[in-house]
Amino acid sequence: MSTITTNPFTASGGDPAFQTYQTPLASRYASKEMAHLFSPAMRFHTWRKLWLNLAIAEKELGLPISDEAIKEMKENLSLDAAQFAVAAQEEKKRRHDVMAHVHTFGTVAPSAAGIIHLGATSCYVTDNADLIFLRDAYDLLLPKLATVISRLTSFAEQYRDLPTLGFTHFQPAQLTTVGKRATLWIQELLWDLRNFQRARDDLGFRGVKGTTGTQASFLSLFDGDHEKVKALDKRVTELSGFSYAYPVSSQTYSRKIDADALAPLASFGATAHKLGNDIRLLAHLKEVEEPFEKDQIGSSAMAYKRNPMRSERVCSLARHLMVLQQNALMTAATQWFERTLDDSANRRVTLPEAFLTADILLTTLQNICEGLVVYPKVIARRISEELPFMATENVIMAVVKKGGDRQEAHEKIRVLSHEAAAVVKQEGKSNDLIARIKGDPYFAKYDLAIDELLDARHYIGRAPEQVDEFIEGSVRPALASWKNSIENAQKAELNV
């Protein structure tokens, strides 16, 4: 067995940051805003705000809480390094994170030390804080998603009528346009925008429900006054920025809410993965490429390569996002009666990672959409290779219009098509079907305008009009409420 003789701490320059694992979601990819939302600083600040809201409501309803207590709590909602150290020491001693922070808060708000967390259970702060984070995380994602849709819409408008070869089964099919293909991506993103908004608006508050959801502790505090307990629940909910609280809960809010909150993110992951995959395939065809920076290296060995690394990152992280909801579903399914604690560690990972991953995907997609490069000549060349086969029906119709027999023309075209296909597949030469048609005496006698029949614009149907109608009828109305966010959005830059 080999022995490591080099001290890794010394080798890395002594920086402790390099000695422990850091999730790349936060350290490498995510926005500062989303990473901060799920940070310890924001979590414990939110706990303190919840304790303040509870104290304000209890005071308003007649409990003996002093103005000084409220004042000290308001003045100390954020933790400094010294308080984090106190909290860590307390948690090590008490093995209870909430009570450690109750004690720590009391050290800087001594007038409130005796009433912090009054009547509450730990889930008052942990669960209500999580609901706040879910809501606020969606508030960060929604304008980003609207911006991605807007950027991609500009691309669709620009290339609304540029013919391109369509693919079914990744085999050549009827023509479409580059812009029309983009509308397929946009439509799914619009559904994601709708789903995000629904999930965000559907979120409620746990409120003040007590240890098993019965509010027994608060009923005792208010000497059996049910109306005051109901008023307390309502007031704390209002102070915390929610329009309603869930009418019943156990010790926790139902973990089904987590599953419902993560479902739109998983669905968005599927959208992002398809979009990224399509761009990767287009990059292989050399028809459309994602941005490629001047000094970017595609391969350490093959200097000529332009790997679609952004789209590959999208697909990689989208798979992670799609499976995270399974954690939430399994947790919801396995809760016992009023609660078990086997949800806690799982949720500490799953909930932040889902929103951090979605945030990264949106930033990356925006970056891609802001720099997509289209190669019309490559697209035209591929069309020219396949269009002769697609044009055969139009040739047959032209013969019929000039008095010819459809079945006879069909048989002639069939024979010539097979001959041309053999040249392409067996000899590796270009498609010469049109030359064969022009040189065939049967077709020559009808004096057909063959070259006109090969105009790609005749084969795209209503694709350009569909782009226009879709944007005006579906996209612009959906983005109307996000106009300011879109206009103020900065160009997306990737950290790595």
UniProtKB/TrEMBL annotation:
The keyword Lyase applies. It is an enzyme of class 4 (lyase). GO terms for cellular component: cytosol. Pathway: Purine metabolism; IMP biosynthesis via de novo pathway; 5-amino-1-(5-phospho-D-ribosyl)imidazole-4-carboxamide from 5-amino-1-(5-phospho-D-ribosyl)imidazole-4-carboxylate: step 2/2; Purine metabolism; AMP biosynthesis via de novo pathway; AMP from IMP: step 2/2. Coiled coil: none annotated. GO terms for molecular function: (S)-2-(5-amino-1-(5-phospho-D-ribosyl)imidazole-4-carboxamido) succinate lyase (fumarate-forming) activity; N6-(1,2-dicarboxyethyl)AMP AMP-lyase (fumarate-forming) activity. This is Adenylosuccinate lyase. NCBIfam families: purB (TIGR00928). It catalyses: N(6)-(1,2-dicarboxyethyl)-AMP = fumarate + AMP; (2S)-2-[5-amino-1-(5-phospho-beta-D-ribosyl)imidazole-4-carboxamido]succinate = 5-amino-1-(5-phospho-beta-D-ribosyl)imidazole-4-carboxamide + fumarate. Residues 387-471 form the Adenylosuccinate lyase C-terminal domain. One of its GO terms (biological process) is 'de novo' IMP biosynthetic process. InterPro entries: AdenyloSucc_lyase_C, Fumarate_lyase_CS, Fumarate_lyase_fam, Fumarate_lyase_N, L-Aspartase-like, Pur_lyase. Homotetramer. Residues from neighboring subunits contribute catalytic and substrate-binding residues to each active site. CDD domains: Adenylsuccinate_lyase_2. SMART domains: ADSL_C. Belongs to the lyase 1 family. Adenylosuccinate lyase subfamily. Keywords: Lyase, Purine biosynthesis. Its EC number is 4.3.2.2. The lineage of its organism: Eukaryota, Fungi, Dikarya, Basidiomycota, Agaricomycotina.
